[in-house]
Amino acid sequence: MTADKTLLQMKYARIISLLSKKMKISEEKAMDLFFNSNTYIFMSKGLSDFHCLSDAYLVDEIVLEQKS
After folding, report:
1. Residue 41 confidence (pLDDT)
2. CA 66, CA 49: separation in Å to the nearest integer?
3. Strand runs labelled E in the chain
4. How far apart are CA 52 and CA 31, in angstroms?
5. Distance in angstroms (rounded) separating the CA atoms of residues 44 and 42
6. In this predicted structure, what is the pLDDT of residue 50?
């Protein structure tokens, strides 16, 4: 299932903001991490229902992805 594009863009912005705060990095760096993550790929292509998961959970997924 795919999410509404406007709602998805808003979710991306929230995730980037939370990622920036959690990792203590600039929003520009957080945006780079997000848009180059598997989480973003899954969400943008509708490959999973990641858009249904909480913003905090998705941020944690991106952080874990960076550690591996």
Report:
1. 92
2. 21
3. none
4. 20
5. 6
6. 83
Evaluate whether 4 touches 52 at the Cβ level (below 8 Å): no
Q: d(Cα 45, Cα 24) in Å, to the nearest integer?
A: 28
The DSSP secondary-structure symbol of 51 reads G
pTM over the 0.85 mark: yes
pLDDT tens digits in sequence order for the chain, 68 residues long: 566 889 899 999 999 999 999 999 999 999 999 999 999 998 888 777 888 899 999 999 999 999 88
Q: Rounded to whole angstroms, how far apart are CA atoms 60 and 48?
A: 17
Q: Compute the half-sphere exposure of residue 47: CA atoms within 13 Å on the CB side of its CA.
A: 8
Tokens 């959690």 correspond to 22
- Provide the 10 A C-beta neighbour count for residue 24: 7
